[in-house]
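One-letter codes give the sequence; backbone shape is given numerically. An example follows:

. . .
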Amino acid sequence: MILNKHVGLLTAALALQLGIVQAQQNPVKLNLGSFEGNKGSWAEVGKVWANPVIPNELQFADGSGIMANLPTKKTHGADIISTDKFGDVDLSLEYMVAPGSNSGVYLQGNYEIQILDSWTTTNTKPGDNGGIYQRWDESKPEGQKGYQGYAPRQNASKAPGVWQKLEVSFQAAKFDASGKKIENARFLSIKLNGVTIHENVEVFGPTRGAMSGKDVAEGPLRIQGDHGAVAFRNIEITQFNAKSPTVSKVNYETFQGSFNNLEELSGKSSVAKGSVASLSEVPASVSDVNLTKYTANLNVAEAGEYQITLLVPGGLAGFATGSESISNLSDRGVRIKKQLKAGDNPIQIIASKNRNWSVDGFNLAISGPGLRSTDLLVSAAGANQDTDPILVDVDETPVLRSFRDIPNHKRLSHVVSVASKEQVNYAYDMETGTLIQVWRGLFLDATPMWNSRGNGVSIPRGAVINLTTPAVNAVSSDYSASEEFRTKGYQLKNGSEDIIFSYLLNGESVKDEIKVLETGKGINRSVSGIGNGFYKIATGTEIQKINKGYYLLPETGLYLEYDEATYGAPVAHTTDGNAGIFLPAKGNIVYNLLF
């Protein structure tokens, strides 16, 4: 185990506890008709898939909803460019890359996020999937032309032929009234398959292959199509072009003492009060426990529904707008949605520091129509706090027992997580003999498990695939499961690369051996002693045959590889409302999961 230093915001942790999200925005949905530049290789289709062993080829079926680039020898691929231009945006889309193929998404036509088949890559570079591509200078010597590229923090990619999700928060370059650039463009965050791979990355100019040689305030979305087969769906852009709100004409009144409700203020005299132009100018006149009332004007450019978040770490908070009054105080924060008019809106704030050890001040943020979450005040309460995430060192601890939280299920208390040098990881529930999760990328965050008193939970750090909820996997020919299960532990073979889990099922000894494939494409599993019937390997209802003994399970994004001539074809079956993919079993079962 190693401790990695990380600087974070105290308020970010509180925001998570309050369930804080931005106010609902109205995204723009793009389809093939939203772009120009198609020279014949792009088409709208209803379904796409790939055979992972056939390079640069996507298969398709007619329909709608997917825009696919399908180049041929006669019809070469071409980039497409949106007819609309954008500034500050959130971009969300899904894409499928063909085996060995290459594409890219250019924000404003200038800043490329690489799309690449990076399956099995362990040491990421700027040119890998999800990387912010390099800038380029032809005047420099060979080997030095590329510069200022940013590799993703880890390889959170999925296999080719599987849908992947990209989420980008982008802030455009800023210019003054004369057109002079005063602020560089910035990727506030980039998530790939739910994993943050970039955060607060400043880009000092357009990347290689940009449409423009200079930064712009607005530009189109450009999708690269001249490097291979790729498909896109569910492209949505949310624009943030509203003027930043302001808070003015601030009046404050501070009372010394620890106050847990407003009734305790009765008969008390304030120790400080006054008027200032902005919240940041309110003096810190009391260092001990205290309560401060504020009134002010909140100015927004556009009428509409806004979400306002007030955080008071270690204290109590109250907030009201218009003629409303504050009757109750909330522990550590308030989150409300309010209809605001364009222009000035009266607001009231109460921040009570009622614990000696807590920090002074509060954080106030707002989001709304065309407005990304914006801090109106970051006080001492929102200052940087040193934290020490506890990240599991896979060289020292490649196997870890812990609790695990999975969707729609109670907390699991006997989970074994296993890492590998190929960055192929999995988690196994000892109480039921279930392979519950697989993921590619970094191993585990054990902060919840070991920090302070800890709750025993570890969190996978890569792109997790939840295979199935815990249950006895071996079932009879009528899909009924035995409740006679007893775990017998596990044994390590060849380090952590090969593990045998043992349990008793109906009094019979079962051996469940899992090992990471040498190719790094997934895992091999061999289960013996399970009798005849079926064996559940994943949740799902759809099975798509790619080749003999090779299937795609679209709902989990996995490839199944096994000897169907010996065992028979996989089966989708639903029991008691639980849909699953089953393999016929003849005393044992052997299969690979590729992801």
Notes: Residues 51 and 595 are 13 Å apart (CA to CA).
